[in-house]
Amino acid sequence: MQALRSMTCDNVGKVRAVAVLSSLSPDRPLVLVGAGKMGGAMLAGWLDAGLAPDAVVAIDPAPPADTAALLAANGIAARGDVPAVSARVLVVAVKPQAMGDVLPGLAPLVAPDTIVLSIAAGKTIASLEAAFPGVAVVRTIPNTPAQVGRGMTAAVANGRVTGADRDLVTALLAAVGDVAWLDDEALIDVATAISGSGPAYVFHFVECLAAAGEALGLPPELAARFARATVEGAGELLHQSDLPPAQLRRNVTSPGGTTAAALAVFTEGDALATLVTAAARAARRRSEELSG
Questions:
Q1: Looking at per-residue confidence, does 122 or 221 come out higher?
Q2: How far apart are CA 127 and CA 290, in angstroms?
Q3: What domain range includes position 60?
Q4: pLDDT tens digits for 236-273?
């Protein structure tokens, strides 16, 4: 199985996104349930992409300070109740363990043409269909770089999602980064292991690189600075370059040089590749357990 489509919100995409997002209105709004870190980050992207503030309803009795400031700046009230409104898109962004308590109370928001868009890990399409029978459901797994507009979101739809529904959801998700539609819900667990959990792997590598610098004699503050700037710069080079990662690696690896010596340690017996694959398998297995 593979991704059916991938797109980013570039200049052309932003124009298209504005047109699509304009279909949301105060009468048929986007209702965001849970305005925490991820929900707040996505809301910031939607507003930046052209979503009208009066077409947003936010249900969260105690949003974090940064999200509360965003809501206030756009004149959006953080509600603790469920309003009498028919949602065009119902975004469920609460923690997975709270879903059982929250979902039943959201039923009045759902109309026959409502799209239920879940960003909660471990909650299957079937579980969402059980809570909201007969409506379009999209299950997604975004990641934390969505907070800076550089996220990666995998999405899978049930059979009730129309082409127009998909265009609307794509515009919403592309406002915070890249989007890949999957044709197999099981691949959500793989996406969780690679892109959903992946930022933590990178952050841990930065920690390890800094620790190595410190072990070799750098002052702790300087070791942390070198490690962080190196990974930030490499990521930006990867972002801006059309070259594949393997070519970028070769470009910085002189035969017989210092980088080649270090990479020989990583590649001996496929050590790093084996470790990363084992870690991803563990993450996928846990995602499957949470979905069960």
A1: 221
A2: 12
A3: 3-186
A4: 999 999 999 999 999 999 999 999 999 999 999 999 99
What separation in angstroms does the CA of 227 have from each of 216, 224, 232, 234? 13, 5, 9, 11
Residues 144 and 74 in one domain: yes
How far is it, in rounded angstroms, from Cα 287 to Cα 93? 17
- Contact (Cβ atoms closer than 8 angstroms) between residue 152 and residue 178: yes
In degrees rounded to 5, what are phi and psi of residue 186?
A: -60, -25
Local structure of 89: helix, strand or coil: strand
Length, in residues, of the chain? 292
Q: Is the dihedral of CA 270, 276, 282, 288 positive or negative?
A: negative
For residues 170 and 162, the answer to whether their CB atoms sit within 8 Å is no
- Domain assignment present for residue 19? The answer is yes
In a domain, 192, yes or no: no
- 93 and 206: one domain? no
* Phi, psi values for residue 179, rounded to 5°: -130, 135
pLDDT for 21: 85
**Residue 271's CATH number:** 1.10.3730.10
- Mean pLDDT for 208-216 is 98
Q: What is the DSSP string of 186-238?
A: THHHHHIIIIISHHHHHHHHHHHHHHHHHHTT--HHHHHHHHHHHHHHHHHHH
Strand order in the sheet with 177-182: 3-8, 177-182, 151-157, 136-141, 110-118, 87-92, 30-33, 56-59, 78-79
Global pTM exceeds 0.70: yes
Q: Cβ-count burial of 1 within 10 angstroms (0-12 exposed, 13-18 middle, 19+ buried)?
A: exposed
